[in-house]
Amino acid sequence: LKVLIKVLLQVLPCTAATTAQPCSHYCTLKDIEFSYSKHYNKVEYVKFSSSVGKFVGYNKHGIYTAERANNNTAQLAGWRAQKESICKPNIEGYYSGILSKKVEPSRVTLRSVTPPGGKHTHMLMCSVYGFYPKHISVKWLRDGKVTTSDVTSTEELADGDWYYQIHSHLEFTPRSGEKISCMVEHISLSDPVIRDWDPSLPESERNKIAIGASGLILGLILSLAGFIYYKRKMRGQSLVPDFWQGGVP
C-alpha cells in the first residue's frame, strides 16, 4: 500500500516552474521518505530525498543546483532533518485516522452465473463489496472443506473511494446432497462471513417466483383500494334523496 501525502505544494511565480515537498509512506511508519524536487515545463531537474541524503541533478542546470546545495553543509543538514520535522508528525496523524482504518464488507453475495463452457455445467460467483484495507481472503467450501480446484478470482478492485471489491468464481458439477459455501475472511471481521448456496431452485426460477409474488401482492392492494372506494361511493349515494321515489322536493 503506497500512500502519497503531499504536505506542501508551492507553485513558484514562474508559471512553468514548480517546487514540491512530498512525504511518501509505503507500508509502515519506518518506511517514510521525504523528497523535495523542482520542475520546469513539467520536467524534473533536481531532487533531494531522505533515502539518498543529498541533491541529485538530472540536467545541466539541475547538476549545477545540486552541487551548490550539497556544498552548503548547514543547509544540507536542514534538508536531512525534514523527514523527522515534517513527515513523521503529519503521517502519524494520517496513519491513526486513515491507514489503520478497518471497514467490514458492506455486502457479500452468492449467485449462479452462466459457465464459460467446458467440463462443468454450473458456475457460482461470490462477490464482496465495500471493504478496507485491501487484503481479503475468499474461499470456497464443499461440504465444509476448502477447495481450490476450478476456482478463479479477480484482484481486489478499487472503488475509487478507499474501498474495494472482489469477485470469485467456482465451476462445478452438482452432486446430490452437496453443500457449497463461500467464506470471506478480513481483518475487520471477528468471524468469517459464510454464504451457503441454495440449489433448491435455479436463480431464474426464484426470480420468477419473487416477481409473481410481488405482482400478486400489488394486485390485492389495488383490489382492496378499489373495493373501499366503491363502498364509500355507494354509501354517499344512499344519503341523497331520490326525487322520483317520493323524495322531499
UniProtKB/TrEMBL annotation:
<keyword id="KW-0732">Signal</keyword>
<dbReference type="GO" id="GO:0006955">
    <property type="term" value="P:immune response"/>
</dbReference>
<dbReference type="InterPro" id="IPR013783">
    <property type="entry name" value="Ig-like_fold"/>
</dbReference>
<dbReference type="GO" id="GO:0042613">
    <property type="term" value="C:MHC class II protein complex"/>
</dbReference>
<dbReference type="InterPro" id="IPR007110">
    <property type="entry name" value="Ig-like_dom"/>
</dbReference>
<protein>
    <recommendedName>
        <fullName>Ig-like domain-containing protein</fullName>
    </recommendedName>
</protein>
<dbReference type="InterPro" id="IPR050160">
    <property type="entry name" value="MHC/Immunoglobulin"/>
</dbReference>
<dbReference type="InterPro" id="IPR000353">
    <property type="entry name" value="MHC_II_b_N"/>
</dbReference>
<keyword id="KW-0325">Glycoprotein</keyword>
<keyword id="KW-0812">Transmembrane</keyword>
<keyword id="KW-1133">Transmembrane helix</keyword>
<dbReference type="InterPro" id="IPR011162">
    <property type="entry name" value="MHC_I/II-like_Ag-recog"/>
</dbReference>
<dbReference type="Pfam" id="PF07654">
    <property type="entry name" value="C1-set"/>
</dbReference>
<dbReference type="InterPro" id="IPR036179">
    <property type="entry name" value="Ig-like_dom_sf"/>
</dbReference>
<keyword id="KW-1015">Disulfide bond</keyword>
<feature type="signal peptide">
    <location>
        <begin position="1"/>
        <end position="20"/>
    </location>
</feature>
<dbReference type="InterPro" id="IPR014745">
    <property type="entry name" value="MHC_II_a/b_N"/>
</dbReference>
<feature type="domain" description="Ig-like">
    <location>
        <begin position="105"/>
        <end position="194"/>
    </location>
</feature>
<dbReference type="Pfam" id="PF00969">
    <property type="entry name" value="MHC_II_beta"/>
</dbReference>
<keyword id="KW-0472">Membrane</keyword>
<feature type="transmembrane region" description="Helical">
    <location>
        <begin position="209"/>
        <end position="230"/>
    </location>
</feature>
<dbReference type="InterPro" id="IPR003597">
    <property type="entry name" value="Ig_C1-set"/>
</dbReference>
<dbReference type="GO" id="GO:0019882">
    <property type="term" value="P:antigen processing and presentation"/>
</dbReference>
